Amino acid sequence: MVVRTAVVGAGTVSRAHLAGAQNNPDMELVAVCDLDEELARERAREFGTMAVTDFTELLDELDCLHVCTPVQTHFEIARQAIEAGVGVIIEKPATVTAEEVEQLQTLSREHDTPVTVIHNHLFYPAVRKARELIDAGELGHVKSVDTLYAGLTPPDQVNRGSWVFELPGGEFEEGLPHPIYSVLGIGGWPERDEDISAQTVLSTNYEEDFEYDQAQAQYVSAEGALCNVTMLSGTLPQRLHVITGSEKSLIVDEINQSLYEVDEDYTSSVIARSKKSLDVSLAQASSTLENVKAVATSRFDDSWESETKTNSHCAIFDEFVDAIEGDAEVPVPLEQSKWTIRIMETIRDAARPSREGSAADPSEAADTVLAEEPVTPDDEESVPADL
């Protein structure tokens, strides 16, 4: 089966979707759509496809639609596609509110149409390997997941546009979905809204009226794991996941795509403590060699199989084709996206003491969401620059 595909939204992030659809041997790129006709034509020329301004004209001939438009439009576009029986891939964040995600879940079930979201950090090679080890039961019972994303952009810097200043956390807040969905994808999601708590700090005085530039969220997963995600701006970059199991633990470094397994007690003796340094060095050297091999292979092997191993967007597209054909689950379930937005809402509440303990107001959330689709270095590159 060839999956007939179109991309709606011709901004910068659309290039990853257009290239993925173009290179996937199981997809046929039918068109790119944008309200800006000239921009649509520019992307169409770049990728050798057709340009349109109204995506609804295509629905009868599509199997899959990539949604790369401003987040405020995601729900309505996805709704129309689902009701037409067209599978949908949505850029993060999926919608403005968690309630909208729930509506998409209902529509997806009613129309038996798959929907997924681009949570691409979960498909980095080292993170995929960690998730495979967890799913295989090699860690035993996962007791905790601690995720640290440090060195995020401060709220007053403009990487994505001045519209970020409308967010309570400015530019800093726009980058938070990545670490939040990462801890959810590794540790599982909560059972209830009440299981989530959050703290925020405003560590610097800014000219603009921002409410926070550091954030931390915690919850207990439905499987009983203690999950914590810490997000900091104004520091040197770090992206670490420490996953502690009853039988084995993992330390994942996203920056250099290394994975270190802790499978023995290094505190038992001086010799054991010394051995840990050696084991860490060997693990890092092994990961470096694997990364070098992956880069070298990708330069000489332009096959789709090779691309799915190093390109996190393409890995999602590849799995979604299987879901459309009915052979697999979607790569990122909407439930994960729903909890990502729930945690974001909890963080916003924590930054507003006067509203502490109250539910997030969807109408207010709509006023503070992204004015255009986020484009970050992580959206443009499938893996960290080290690879």
UniProtKB/TrEMBL annotation:
Biased composition (Acidic residues): 375-387
Pfam families: GFO_IDH_MocA, GFO_IDH_MocA_C
UniProt GO MF annotations: nucleotide binding
InterPro entries associated with the record: Gfo/Idh/MocA-like_OxRdtase_C, Gfo/Idh/MocA-like_OxRdtase_N, Gfo/Idh/MocA_Oxidoreductases, NAD(P)-bd_dom_sf
Gfo/Idh/MocA-like oxidoreductase C-terminal domain residues: 131-355
Gfo/Idh/MocA-like oxidoreductase N-terminal domain sequence ranges: 4-119
Region annotation Disordered: where it falls in the sequence: 350-387
Coiled coil: none
Entry protein name: Oxidoreductase domain-containing protein
Organism of this sequence: Natrinema versiforme JCM 10478
